[in-house]
Design a protein that fits this description.
Order of helices and strands of chain A: EEEHEHEHEHEEEEHEEEH
Radius of gyration of chain B: 22 Å
CATH class of the largest domain in chain B: Alpha Beta
Structural class of chain A: alpha/beta
CATH class of chain A: Alpha Beta
CATH architecture of chain A: 3-Layer(aba) Sandwich
Strand order of the largest sheet of chain B: 7-11-6-1-4-5-12
Number of strands of chain A: 13
Structural class of chain B: alpha/beta
Strand content of chain A: 25-35%
Oligomer: heterodimer
CATH topology of chain A: Rossmann fold
Order of helices and strands of chain B: EEEHEEHHEHEEEEEEEEHEHEHEEH
Number of strands of chain B: 18
Largest sheet of chain A: 9 strands, mixed
Low-confidence stretches of chain B: none
Largest interface: A-B, 83 and 95 residues
Strand content of chain B: 25-35%
Shape of chain A: globular
Number of helices of chain A: 6
């Protein structure tokens, strides 16, 4: 069995974001980067499936600048076997369609049985790449999976819907599955596995020429609408002020 | 401008959120036709054409078939944009349409400005503006476009044939949400814990404040995923949608999915070390403090009265 996982490296969402010079994307200065949280669940599920079946190869693919190699290395340390890094400094200028097309060009001849991706990236949150890739590959696709079971070629997943409800879906390989948070418990790479991963192949690939469908105008900070009253000071002071406000503005303190 | 609005139907019901699609059309001053896979008895109240595919035949979840049916309607209507809700139904279907029709997809639109659509990025800390050359697939964020009044009208129903096609994705049915331990929708006061509490033991600081206020404990998704608090306490799109008299957000930065579940609360008090956290957008008051110091101190003060 051949399994593919698509990962993206994104900034830590707790960061303070600044705009780049052209106001097209965030400035990378002072940002810490990590593997997209949704993709950690995708990698974990791929590795668990490999452990279950015993004879699978797991390939990880990522499109991004040089730093994205760190996310790829983490995936290898978690248990993926080899990697394809589509090195692209202009990654942020590509729309989801172009990103999916790039991945497609590098994976179409590999005949993967199961592809795991994150439901969405934490930075853009478009939730498109996995599904569009499925359309290009002509694979069925189930999005937003929160449970996964594999049994002799039969796959049963649960999709997470709104309000805690789930949809039970059965499907056979080949298939693309996009992973929701909470699907499993992503492992931490152990030191021996980090060492082992250093010997694994990371194939460097060039981005292919693609045309965007979408035009990116610019990026900005959100318009402040109902800006909150900000209280600062020491804890005692804050408690007193808060009590005062709760008494005036709400009916909850009797 | 003409829009093709894709109504959502689940558990044998057309959803109330379908009116947000119409509100979006109104905001753009656009004409629209609707499409939906559903039953015929509770269609959204609206004027104009409604292309209806029988859900008994087309299934409530059968994305490749739904995609095909929508593409056929698009062929007839030649709409400028196809609009869906940014939900597990919409974000699943929209990229399929984007690929099928080679049209750009704009995900999770929160506002429009001239020819540009505004989308949140990086957990709502940034806003992206994007445009298309007048055609595309759009998903709109829940709660971003609200109907100003109740819609009236009766759609002109056009029944569409559902071809019998073999589907590779078999929908086997729904699994209800686990029994809700606490019905947060009825609570007057909710005090919620977010990732900012730091670790599981610290949830007690938040619980203590909830008890002092006589309210219920709520939680954000990361806290539930880390198993610090049970899912039945989760507030947000994948948990419960609440509107209490007082909502206290403790160490919750304010992911869009969380905000959608609580922003209609009467009064929102946020406690966060980061005063630029997106929660400040919906909060009435933001206390800049470590929740693990502030929450127990406030609880003590309330209890001592």
């Amino acid at each position: 069995m051949k399994i593919l996982v698509c990962v993206k490296q994104v900034p830590d969402m707790e960061s303070k974001f600044k705009l780049d010079k052209e106001n097209k994307w965030f400035s990378e200065e002072d940002l810490a980067f990590r593997m997209n949280e949704y993709d950690e669940y995708a990698v974990e599920q791929a590795v668990q499936l490999k452990e279950q079946t015993g004879d699978a190869e797991v390939v990880v693919v990522s499109l991004g600048p040089d730093r994205a190699k760190e996310a790829v290395k983490k995936a290898l340390a978690m248990g993926c076997d080899r990697a394809i890094h589509i090195k692209d400094d202009d990654y942020y200028k590509k729309d989801s369609y172009s990103v999916a097309k790039n991945i497609y060009e590098y994976v179409k001849d590999e005949n993967f049985d199961i592809v795991f991706t994150g439901l969405q990236s934490q930075d853009r949150g478009s939730a498109q790449v996995g599904v569009i890739l499925a359309e290009f590959l002509d694979y069925p696709c189930v999005t937003t999976i929160i449970e996964f079971e594999y049994n002799n070629g039969e796959i049963q997943v649960k999709r997470e819907l709104e309000g805690g409800e789930k949809a039970i879906v059965k499907v056979k390989a080949p298939v693309i599955l996009t992973c929701q948070l909470g699907l499993n418990t992503p492992r931490y790479p152990t030191l021996p596995n980090i060492m082992k991963a250093k010997k694994k192949e990371i194939k460097a690939a060039e981005p292919v020429d693609t045309e965007n469908l979408l035009t990116f105008t610019d990026i900005d900070y959100p318009e402040k609408k109902g800006a909150a009253e900000i209280l600062e000071g020491d804890v005692k002071e804050l408690v007193d002020k808060t009590m005062e406000i709760l008494k005036q503005k709400t009916s909850v303190l009797k | 401008m003409k829009l093709l609005l894709i109504a959502e139907y689940k558990n044998k019901k057309f959803l109330e959120s379908n009116y947000e699609l119409i509100a979006f059309a109104d905001k753009l001053n656009a004409d629209y036709v609707m499409f939906g896979v559903g039953g015929g008895s509770d269609l959204p109240k609206c004027d104009g054409k409604f292309y209806l595919a029988d859900s008994e035949k087309a299934g409530e979840y059968n994305p490749s078939l739904h995609k095909k049916l929508i593409a056929e309607v698009m062929e007839k209507e030649k709409a400028d944009f196809i609009v869906l809700s940014h939900t597990s139904y919409g974000w699943d279907l929209a990229p399929r349409l984007s690929a099928e029709l080679t049209l750009p997809q704009v995900s999770e639109v929160v506002d429009v400005s001239g020819n540009n659509f505004i989308l949140p990025a990086c957990n709502g800390k940034l806003w992206r503006k994007v445009s298309t050359d007048g055609k595309g697939i759009i998903t709109i964020q829940g709660g971003a476009f609200n109907p100003e009044s109740d819609y009236e009208g009766t759609p002109e129903v056009i029944n569409i044939e559902v071809p019998s096609v073999e589907t590779k994705v078999r929908f086997e049915g729904y699994e209800k949400a686990e029994a809700v331990g606490v019905d947060l929708t009825k609570a007057e006061i909710i005090v919620s814990a977010g990732r900012g509490v730091g670790k599981k033991e610290n949830v007690e600081n938040v619980r203590k404040l909830a008890e002092a206020l006589g309210g219920e404990l709520g939680a954000s998704r990361p806290v539930v995923d880390s198993e610090w608090v049970e899912h039945s306490h989760q507030v947000g799109t994948t948990g419960q949608t609440v509107a209490p008299k007082l909502y206290v957000a403790c160490g919750i930065s304010g992911a869009i999915q969380h905000l959608a579940g609580m922003k209609k609360s009467d009064f929102i008090l946020a406690v966060n070390t980061d005063k630029d956290a997106p929660i400040a957008e919906v909060a009435d008051v933001l206390v800049v403090s470590d929740v693990n110091q502030f929450a127990p101190a406030l609880a003590d003060k309330i209890s001592s009265k």
